[in-house]
Amino acid sequence: MHQFVKKTVLALALASVSFGASAHRGWMLPSTTFVEKEEAWVTIDGAVSEGLFDFDHVPLRMENVTVTDPGGATAAAPGAVQGKLRTTLDLRLPRDGTYRIALVSENVVGSYQLGGETRRVRGTPASVAKDIPAAATELQTSTTHSRMETFVSANKLSRDALKPSGKGLELVPVTHPNDLRAGEPARLRFQLDGKPLANFPFSLVPGGVKYRGTIGEIRLVTDASGEASFTLPAPNRYWLSARFPVEQDKGPGEPGARRYAYSATLEVLPE
Amino acid sequence: MKLSHTLALTLPLASGWAMAADLSVTFQLPKMKVAEYHKPYVAIWIEKADGGVASTLAVLYDVKKKDEGGEKWLKDLRTWWRKAGRDLDMPIDGVSGATKAVGSHSMEFANATGDLPAGKYKLVVEASREAGGRELVRLPFTLPAKGKLAAKAAGKEELGAVSIAIQ
Questions:
Q1: 3-state secondary structure of B46
Q2: Which residue of A has its CA nearest to B81?
């Protein structure tokens, strides 16, 4: 029995290392990505789940969601309601055009020595700076910058909300993210701190894994100019994800390391 | 009922009254055994090789609905809407027409191809039914059409046989 448990645990551990697909994913899913109505609203569901776009694990914390409006102005979007399995944010789209909904976070983990004792610290860059006493020595921290996004448009497409911030790992849509059609060519760019990422791999997973049993992950790589061109095979909601550096272990990074993660939910419509 | 149907058929002709029709399109709206049936909205247009719309020939919808209420559902003709409809100001004389009943319908268009540059085109018929599906049928043709050109295809659900003749 003991032997069996050990083996199972080992198998599970291996599985989680080798198959990124079985990991929990965080995502925000808009009720629609293009609203054609005078009074436009969308509902954004957020969850961390095992099955893609299923509410099967825990709600996504969405207190810090920001919305960039068609004019390019970014503001906090309070009012997310956290449920047991998902969080929901109702969003009115008062102006015609494209909105970017983003959840950006920067997390620091680290340790320091104080009075011969090692202490651990974690939080945002600001909270960590505050938590570390002045007398601390041998301070070591690593930082993870992550950005999770989705895009919605009301009545027309616009581009001001799509401009990248120049900080961290970012997707720069060349083809408008709310005008992705199955069978038509699409083009995306990736950049790190404003610089194009050449030969950078990312992947797209279509929703509904539960109903087809296979992940169906589409792996793509940017070219020398940091752009990737591809044709999506079928209409669906897709979860796009990328991280930098590309090869990284689970758990806290090496002291001083900076890691970046990017993910987005994109809707691909039939023609 | 029969009268309005005949009237609708003649409407698209009215604008090109003096000219002979150079393009005729025949399309079939299949009979369906469904719990809720509404006559489909239909758009017929000529598509350029790059996928853009060369010209919209017909948009059949609820033109009589009060306060142009029928236009609200034109966006369900999604492909046409995205490529042309969204930017058009409906109704359009000689293009807007009433929905058609189950059956085979022929529409004739005057000078539909005469002003188009030589090249490859597609005649597209898109049908979208409330509480139903949406389907497109494309018929490729090349201009100038030497002599009399005819082509046909068929949909699977929302559209039956579709054929065109150019002269």
A1: strand
A2: A271
User: Is the CB of B78 inside 8 Å of chain A's CB atoms?
Assistant: yes
Between CA B105 and CA B127 the distance in angstroms is 13
Tokens, residue A192:
């790190």
Say if A85 is an interface residue toward chain B (CB within 8 Å): no
The rounded distance, in Å, linking the Cα atoms of B55 and A127 is 61
With a cut of 0.85, is the ipTM above it?
Answer: no
CB–CB contact A271 B75 (8 Å) = no
Cβ atoms of A244 and A192 closer than 8 Å: yes
* H/E run at residue A129: helix A125-131
Please state, in angstroms and rounded to a whole number, the distance separating the CA atoms of residues A201 and A191.
12
Helices (H) and strands (E) in chain A, counts: 3, 20
DSSP A137: E
Kind plus residue range of the DSSP H or E element containing B163: strand B161-166
Determine, for residues A269 and B75 on separate chains, whether the beta-carbon distance falls below 8 Å. no
Identify the bridge partners of residue B165 per DSSP, sorted by sequence position. Answer: B24, B150
Vertex B89 angle, CA B88 and B95, to 5°:
80
Collapse the DSSP code of A10 into the 3-class scheme (helix H, G, I; strand E, B; otherwise coil) and give the result.
helix
pLDDT tens, N- to C-terminus, chain B (167 residues): 333 444 444 444 444 444 567 899 999 999 999 999 999 999 999 999 999 999 999 999 999 999 888 888 999 999 999 999 988 998 998 899 999 999 999 999 998 998 899 999 999 999 999 999 999 999 999 988 877 788 899 999 999 999 999 98
How far, in Å, CA of B129 to CA of B131, rounded? 6
Chain A residues within 8 A of B75 when measuring between CB atoms: 36
